[in-house]
Design a protein that fits this description.
The complex is a heterodimer of chains A (294) and B (294). Chain A has 294 residues and is mainly α. Chain A has 11 helices and no strands. Chain A is globular. The chains are: A mainly alpha (294), B mainly alpha (294).
């Protein structure tokens, strides 16, 4: 390759800039409009600048308890994150070796990623309904039994079908570049498999696990399609938000949008920061060459 | 790994949680969809049976009335139309962006930062990213104001929002990510000396692009295409919100049927949708072997 930039560079650079503007521009308008003055409407111009609509949001939007939904989504997101990390790491370790059914399991994960969410959601809803009918028919659940569907049963499962394939793909990428020599060295030095994992493998893959956690939380936090039919009772925040888009006609909806985006960005920044920190720490501790032995 | 030729029980235990989640929340639910699609229903109950009535309802007079399209065929034609338009647009944009990042940006660090900039919106809420178009495209929106201010039009342009246009635009906005990532990933693996060789052999820029870069990015293109096509085929959230609930899609049909508790007919529709999506996926998989590329 020559040192000169190719003729395509500048047109493509301009195209890239426009693409970034296209990606971020609309979200920025929501951000700006959420600070609309009390008299302002859903579109430009800005009618003064205020935090009025955040106040309105704080008091709740009509019949919908936004803050309860916020809490539900947050708790669900945390549970999904932990499960996604643990299950993905275990599966990632499993896939390093050939085992019976590994190909089938891999294609199931891919299927989980690409099959229409509405179908997955409907299937989970049917599964739980039929289970409920069964329990009621045989009186297994006691007199007060309503439904087994809920945030931490059917909705949790629906979220995992969406987050786990991403987690698994990240683990594949990680272990494909993982040098088994580290483990062999640990084994040769007499480490048990548990010690090898805890003191050798885990520190090396830790920065990438942060990436898995990021997928776990943000994908759960924003999930609609798979949750929609499988949530059972009280809705998650994105589902409430989707409903509110048709009923709320004030910038309060943008305030809510700004808030959820802020949570997403906070999580992204925190995880990327943690990832970089872990990597830097690993690099610092990576080699003690030339530092003496005492 | 010479020491672990014997598989043992460990990988099975490690893969078990993942397999269990997919079994409970993907495989069994999909099986229930197929089963329930042959059941009957009255007002509030679904009843075990074996009837093909639901499928007959889905394809009600579809063959007899040809060439006039029945509702189901019309919905599929409309959904496939969106899928095709969005696929072409995301492919062109995604390829250009990935090419710019992989071949025109020289520094690895800048490459990573720009790539991150493209992926961050993926981790924020889709609903927010959808409604953020409203202040831009609405009757009183920024685009209409600008057009009228410039004297291009006298009346606000009506087809900007809650139309096929806004649905397509939003799809492209949300899902170009799914094209950029796999194509970029493929391009990073292309041996740069191949391009130099082509140049030395006298190939023009376009010839290198078409005869070297495109064939070697085939895997990424296929994976991205699978993602985009399957998402658009099953979508109901974007079409609903950005189409002002006026545009039909297969996913929306299923959602409506579920809301009327017509589970068996919704299940029959879901089976037809799943079959269509799988057909598209298998067609694309003929082009590429995903497992080999990970």
């Amino acid at each position: 390759m020559g040192d000169k930039r190719s003729r395509a560079f500048w047109p493509l650079a301009i195209f890239f800039s426009l693409f970034v503007l296209f990606l971020y521009g609309p979200t920025l308008t929501v951000l700006i409009l959420s600070f609309q003055g009390p008299e302002g409407g859903l579109t430009f111009p800005m009618n003064g600048v205020s935090t009025h609509w955040f106040g309105v949001l704080w008091q709740g939007l009509g019949v919908v308890d936004v803050w309860a939904a916020f809490g539900r989504s947050f708790r669900l997101g945390l549970v999904v994150t932990v499960l996604t990390v643990v299950i993905s790491v275990l599966a990632g370790l499993a896939f390093r070796r050939r085992f019976r059914g590994s190909t089938l399991l891999f294609y199931t994960a891919i299927a989980s990623l690409i099959l229409p969410s509405i179908a997955v959601s409907l299937g989970i809803a049917l599964e739980f309904r039929i289970f409920d009918d069964f329990v009621k028919a045989y009186g297994l659940g006691g007199a007060g039994y309503q439904s087994s569907m809920g945030l931490f049963t059917s909705a949790l499962g629906a979220h995992l079908t969406w987050t786990l394939p991403f987690g698994l793909l990240v683990m594949f990428a990680v272990f494909n570049r993982f040098d088994p020599a580290y483990e062999e060295a640990a084994r040769d030095l007499g480490a048990t498999p548990r010690q090898t994992f805890r003191y050798v493998v885990l520190p090396i893959i830790a920065p990438y696990l942060v990436g898995v956690a990021l997928f776990g939380f943000t994908l759960s936090w924003d999930e609609i399609a798979r949750t929609s039919q499988a949530v059972g009772g009280p809705n998650t925040l994105p589902l409430e938000l989707q409903g509110l888009t048709t009923t709320v006609t004030t910038p309060a909806i943008y305030a809510l949008g700004t808030l959820t985006t802020a949570v997403s960005f906070l999580v992204i920044a925190l995880t990327l920061g943690t990832g970089l920190f872990l990597r830097a720490r690993r690099m610092r501790g990576a080699s003690d060459a030339g530092k003496g032995t005492l | 790994m010479a020491a672990t030729n014997r598989t043992g029980i460990v990988p099975y235990l490690q893969a078990a949680p993942l397999a269990l989640v997919f079994l409970l929340f993907l495989v069994v639910p999909l099986a229930f969809i197929v089963v329930v699609s042959f059941w009957t229903y009255d007002n509030y109950q679904i009843q075990p049976a074996f009837t093909v009535q639901n499928y007959a309802d889905v394809f009600d007079r579809c063959i007899a009335r040809l060439p006039t399209l029945c509702t189901t065929f019309r919905t599929y034609v409309s959904t496939l139309g969106f899928a095709l338009r969005v696929w072409v647009l995301t492919l062109l944009i995604g390829f250009a962006i990935a090419y710019f990042l992989a071949f025109e940006v020289r520094s690895k660090a800048i490459q990573s930062v720009l790539f991150l900039i493209c992926t961050i919106p993926f981790w924020t809420s889709n609903v927010i990213r959808m409604i953020s178009w409203i202040p831009l495209l609405g009757r009183e929106g920024l685009v209409n104001r600008t057009l009228m201010g410039l004297g291009v039009v006298d009346q606000p342009v009506e087809w900007l929002l809650y139309s096929g246009f806004s649905v397509t635009l939003t799809f492209v906005h949300l899902f170009t990510f799914f094209m950029v990532v796999p194509i970029y990933n493929s391009m990073l693996r292309i041996d740069r000396s191949l391009i130099e060789a082509a140049r030395d052999a006298g190939a023009s820029g376009w010839q290198i692009l078409w005869n070297v870069v495109v064939p070697l990015s085939k895997t990424g293109i296929a994976i991205g295409s699978i993602f985009v096509l399957t998402i658009v085929m099953g979508d109901f959230v974007t079409v609903g919100l950005m189409g002002g609930q006026q545009i039909a899609s297969v996913g929306k049909t299923i959602q409506t049927e579920i809301s009327y508790l017509q589970f068996p007919i919704a299940a029959a529709n879901a089976v037809v949708l799943l079959a269509t999506v799988l057909l598209i996926v298998f067609a694309l998989l003929r082009v590429v072997d995903i497992r080999k590329e990970l």
